[in-house]
Structure formats: structure tokens, C-alpha cells
Amino acid sequence: MSNKHPLVQVIENAQLIERPSFAPGDTVVVQVKVREGERERLQAFEGVVIAKRNRGLNSAFTVRKISSGVGVERAFQLHSPIIDSIEVKRRGAVRRAKLYYLRERSGKSARIREKLAPRAPKAVKPKANA
């Protein structure tokens, strides 16, 4: 339940952008619009989502990647027009909402198990009653 004025809620809801669903532990590629002088280009930032904050228009998420052996984190506003697209590469199976413990880990200990999609049940052959 929000205690915002109804007019403010209408304006905020109009600014929401449809994004794919993802959760902490997922590996995502965020295409960010970067302005260089007159040109505007897309820059990909691929990493693991270590935190997500769901607050309507103020929703945000943090992505962490290792670049040249150095950990790099970048926080994004979910509904920002600077974000061109978000692609979920793989789903991670984690049991925490905030994965800040990955900051102290590197190598194999920083790996995240992949969440496997549920398999469809096998078809059962009907028995022939003779």
C-alpha cells in the first residue's frame, strides 16, 4: 500500500517500462546507452545480479562482474531510459536476497549453481487391454 497522492501514482505508473523478470543470482546483460560527444552507442554490462530493490518507479538492481581480475559493480535504476534492454543469460539458484558475500569471494567459491528448468513429465503409454 502506497501513501502517495493518486495523481503522483498515475504519473509514476505512466513512466514504468516493461522489463524481463530476473532475481538475485541471475546472470544478465544490460545494454546501456552511452553518449560520446554527438554519438550515442550501446555498451553491454554482463554480470551477476547481487541485489534487487523493488519500489515501483524507484526500483533498482546491482550487477557485479570481474573485469581484468578486478570486481566491478554497477547499480542501475530498473525503469531508467538509459537502459536499452536487459537479457537474462542464465538463472542462478541462490538462497539469499542480497549476495554481498560474493564481494569477498573469487574463483570457484564465487560460482553460483544454475537453476534448472523443471522437466516435463514423461508420457505414459496406455496399456492395451486384450
TrEMBL record:
GO cellular component, one term: cytosolic large ribosomal subunit
Gene Ontology terms describing biological process: translation
UniProt cross-references to PROSITE patterns, sorted A to Z: RIBOSOMAL_L19 (PS01015)
Gene3D superfamilies, alphabetized: 2.30.30.790
Molecular-function GO term, any one: structural constituent of ribosome
Entries under InterPro entries matching the protein: Ribosomal_bL19, Ribosomal_bL19_CS, Ribosomal_bL19_sf, Translation_prot_SH3-like_sf
Keywords: Ribonucleoprotein, Ribosomal protein
Homology family: Belongs to the bacterial ribosomal protein bL19 family.
Function: This protein is located at the 30S-50S ribosomal subunit interface and may play a role in the structure and function of the aminoacyl-tRNA binding site.
Protein name per its UniProtKB record: Large ribosomal subunit protein bL19
Organism: Psychrobacter immobilis
